[in-house]
Amino acid sequence: TPIVSARDLVKVYGEGDTAVRALDGVSVDFARGAFTAIMGPSGSGKSTLMHCVAGLDRPTSGSVVVDGEETSRMSERGLTRLRRTRLGFVFQAFNLIPTLTALENITLPLDIARRPVDAEHLDAVVRAVGLADRLDHKPAELSGGQQQRVACARALVARPAVVLADEPTGNLDSVSSREVLAFLRRSVEDLGQSVVMVTHDPTAASFAHRVLFLADGRVVDELHDPTAESIL
Ligand code: ADP
Ligand code: ADP
């Protein structure tokens, strides 16, 4: 079964003449253990779709099932719990805690949830992130790409059902972007993580197993095993 299943999602902002149909009937499944990218022009509904999946926004109609749980009927408390326990987030801004080391930032979700550290998984994450000699450095001593890899490692250290990444390479140069994307891809292929990423960048999207294209609130196309050339 898919890790996320959206059916007939409609999201209307505002009312009457000024109403905007941000999502206009989106039905899509995100496969477990896959890296999916979402592309589309500005205003096509990418953020709205991510927010509906994350339970940050409620759809006007339609349903979202995350890891077997129907979110549309959940209370706010239920949604907060879902975000804390089942989802991992990566944003354009790295949002690391400046006073903590890289390793402390990575393990923060486990500390907050008072969950014991699964040493084997943590070790696998730390190896995959490729920052062995930088783990005791503070964010200010790391490059942008290194900081974003720490943020990605933090997003998946607690084994969330799915990691949602919103323009994770939007602030990075192409070399750093590749390092971050390669890590996300490894997290899927080596650690079994499921990842959904919104991006404007065809090169970034080419790291995914599948790319969905949105336009005017609808899914208009998709590609499997894309290359940067096939996206353009
Ligand atoms: P994208 O992420 O692809 O740029 P969005 O999901 O942000 O697209 O926006 C889709 C449409 O919904 C746009 O027309 C946008 O202006 C509108 N929209 C998004 N959020 C809001 C909001 N909070 N209130 C009103 N309109 C919104
Ligand atoms: P970006 O830098 O990519 O624009 P933001 O950091 O502004 O992303 O966050 C995008 C959205 O995600 C915002 O609506 C914000 O409320 C929400 N958000 C930010 N941090 C979290 C979090 N830790 N958990 C859940 N939602 C979050």
Summarize the structure.
The chain has helices at residues 46-54, 76-86, 102-112, 119-129, 144-156, 174-189, 202-205, 228-231; strands at 4-13, 20-30, 35-39, 61-66, 69-70, 87-90, 162-166, 195-198, 210-215, 218-224. With 232 residues, it is an alpha/beta fold.
Give structural notes.
By secondary structure, the chain is α/β, with parallel strands linked by helices. It contains 8 helices and 10 strands. The protein has helices at 46-54, 76-86, 102-112, 119-129, 144-156, 174-189, 202-205, 228-231; strands at residues 4-13, 20-30, 35-39, 61-66, 69-70, 87-90, 162-166, 195-198, 210-215, 218-224. The strands form 2 sheets. A 6-stranded mixed beta sheet has the order 6-7-8-3-9-10, sandwiched between helices. A hairpin with a 2-residue loop joins strand 4 and strand 5 (69-70). Helix 3 (102-112) packs parallel to helix 5 and helix 5 (144-156) packs parallel to helix 6. The protein is globular. The two termini are 31 Å apart. The mean pLDDT is 95. The site of one adenosine-5'-diphosphate has 12 residues, from strand 2 and helix 1. Residues 4-232 form the ABC transporter domain. One of its GO terms (molecular function) is transmembrane transporter activity. This is ABC transporter ATP-binding protein. It comes from Miniimonas arenae.
